[in-house]
User: Fold this.
Amino acid sequence: MDGDGVWNEEEMQEFQERCYNTPLLPQAMEEVRNCIAKHLPHGVKETGITLDGYLYLNMMFIHRGRQEATWTVLRKFGYDDDLELAESYRAITKLQPAIHKAEISTQGTHYLLCLFSKFDRDQDDLLSDSEFQNLLSVSSKRMIGQDWYQSVETDAKFALTRRGFISLFQLTAYFNPVYTADILAHFGYSYQMAEPDLNSAFDVHKDAPWEANKSSKEQPRKVILCNVIGNRGAGKTSFMEGFLGRNLSLQSKFRDKIDTQSPLHIINQISVYNTLKFLILRRTREYNLDPKEMKSDVNCFIFDASSRESFVYVQKYYERYQMHFGSRSVPSLFVAAKSDLIHDDGKLLEEVKAYCFEKGILPPHIISVNVTTVPSDIYLELATLATYRGAKTRFRVPQFGPGGGSIRQRVSSFLEWLYRRKLVISGCVVVMAIVAGCGVVHIRRTNPAVLQDLRNFRLPMFALKA
Assistant:
């Protein structure tokens, strides 16, 4: 049970009670050990029974006509007559793939962390490649292809961190929950967690964008999907791997060691107002992108800050997306990558800022991964936009530098902001009220008699004749 290759008395007792619903008496336990030791000396150690010893024990049951003892154990672990895991044992019965998305639940996460600790033989809080392959050896399934090392958090030697390990299973559960359930079933989740099925390992949600106001009865979603949209050479891959804390230098070292294409997905943990989320960055294809393929919780339109053609590309797809989805569109954010290569005195960025202001979205983030530490605020903003979709995140009141700007600049910017917020009428009312108030104060100071006349003024009353 603890993975040390020896079945001790405590583990034997737990196994006996779980599979046969009856305790194993000390005398019977000793008889089993003696029987195995007599015919297979290396099947028994001082601390318990080895794997070879257990296999010999089952062979002995079969030879003596007690096949039901072995079949009882196999049934308990979900195997059918063909020695394959039964569909009912490895299915998520509450999941309807056509309308649902799945996430690893809190209980499922706890189970995976226990597995991580169990197979972390050297206790360095990392799963090396050999340790991870040892974990997967109980299942014939392979995790999401050869490039998974690039998709999650690892150390420089490609050893999985705890965050990377949990993120890897969240990624597979999001895109292929049936496949992930199959893996957990082979790991023995139901047996070890004393659950009748795999439902408790997953949270299931309707496949729809996030909403700011959710029912209090609904389990909060943890996984956020963000499309990263941009033309070839815009810096999508570097931006995505920056989410794992890899700057341009580290990314080059990874590509030298792994001969694979750029990762399609990147996932990592992120805290949004002290709530743990998993943000998936998905790289879209560069050509003939269909708006239907852009379905997500938030969109990131990334362009090369030194290339006007690159911005025109994302501008085209942003407007195409808005036209297709309309009011159902999700929040979007423009990102100007490769800021260290800007050579036009920032003229393009000023045009992009004006475009974002016109469309009512946040100004572009300006980033570069050609630095020592990749800033994480951009990824947090994407996760926050998705989590609080519908909240007041589409506009910002214009900000000024330390000088504060001139009076004319402040008034002009404020009136323009009101216009963008469709608050012109309300703004006029506010301005008129302020002007009227100032007039009253001025009259009170200069000619109080006028105020007294105004107080004594009465409107004439007109009698209405039938």
